[in-house]
Amino acid sequence: MGPRTMGGCSKPMELIMGKKFKLPVWERIVSTMREGEIAEFICDTKHTALYPLVSQSLRNISAGKDPMEGQRHCCGIAQIHSHHSLGHVDLDQLQASPQPLAFTMEVLQVLPPGSFRLDTWAMTDEEKLNAVPQIHEEGNALFKEGDTAAAAEKYYNAIACLKNLQMKERPGDESWIKLDLMITPLLLNYCQCKLMQGQYYEVLDHCSSIISKYEDNVKAYFKRGKAHAAVWNEREARADFAKVQELDQSLGPSVGRELRAMEDRIREKEKEEKGRYKNLFSHSASASATATTG
Known about the structure:
By secondary structure, the chain is mostly helical. A two-stranded antiparallel ribbon has the order 1-2. The termini are far apart.
């Protein structure tokens, strides 16, 4: 069913039946339609009270934002009775004064259960846990093909599944730690993608988070060292690379290559800066001489 496009993409909105959608009336009316049918439904106010929140989420998706951005962490009814702005004048007005609404629906395709992958929000806890290995493998395959952006998205989605489960556990408990140990390699893969995309400060944040929990994670030190080197944090980079060698002496040649590359970049930068200053002083001296002789 529509809208036909979301977030500037050609993918239409998906409505998964039986997953307690915020606007139950949409499930009811769509269930009466056939594939390919277009129909208009006029819905009473009692069925449309939550529409402003649903519309806000759809608009966020269309703008490439988090669908829950701008929504408070409370139930939909509580949000309706609060004075919290939804960021759109028309939705604020509709939230303050609910009214009957007409919806025009088009059912583009009907897929049977099991024939498509659920979005994370629609999965049960068991489905999320079972989906992670497959998403991880898909990310690895995309990375090998050189599609780092798509691979990063896969790793991010797998991490999101596990983080969602981890939020339900007490930090430090056995179940929480088990999930965290599953998250860590995925996060390191994600960091590798971000390194290749030049998102160095994001890599610094994530690797520091890993190191704060796992002080012997050599991959986190290595990636953080590369990120530090990329943003000219020479002292921090050397400290991380030294830690890598301390933890795994077999990585000495790799560390040596990274240090040489960093030193070459530093020398090149210093050379450029000297040339820039030299040209600046030459220009100033020339301008001064011209002024004196004039």
